[in-house]
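Quick illustration, no need to memorize.
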Amino acid sequence: MHIAVAGNIGAGKTTLTELLAKHYGWQSNFEDVDDNPYLNDFYNDMQRWSFNLQIFFLNSRFNQILEIRKSGKTVIQDRTIYEDAEIFAPNLHAMGLMSTRDFNNYRTLFNLMVSLIQPPDLLIYLRASIPTLVNQIQKRGRDYENSIRLDYLRQLNERYEKWIKGYTLGKLLIVNVDELDFATSREDLSYVIDKIDAQIHGLF
């Protein structure tokens, strides 16, 4: 089974992925942030490095999905291949930070890749307001995230909401992060686990 956690920068994807993997005994699959050779360059010069960064993520996540399905295990994945193509790449294109030529090339490659894979059995979307995202980003203190602008987060949030509204690829669970603190509250984590249990029982 393939479970995926989606959400904006700072929504708590990695934290929830770790907690759920521990609770259920699932294998966890994380975003390639530390080994990403483009992230620092991208945040310093988005226009120059946007295409390179998105291709790196696309390639990385496509490989992850192939590995997940091949493993035969239940795997929980931190961020999906769809978020890059539905949220991040179109946002960079709309901001004038990715050329139309590069964006079209990217979409063609994405469309080919998704025709060869299965979507997650369950998608967990972490919905968070801008103040919550900013608070979480500041708390973890990653250097390259210090320059993220509020309007950039806001644009991403709008695209996330639009994507989730039209999401029909599989089961979907929306978790409102503004009202929950699953990182420190066992009660809040139990609430999320109960919701997931209800969804999973419908998968078997």
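Residues 2-201 form a domain with the Rossmann fold fold (CATH 3.40.50.300).
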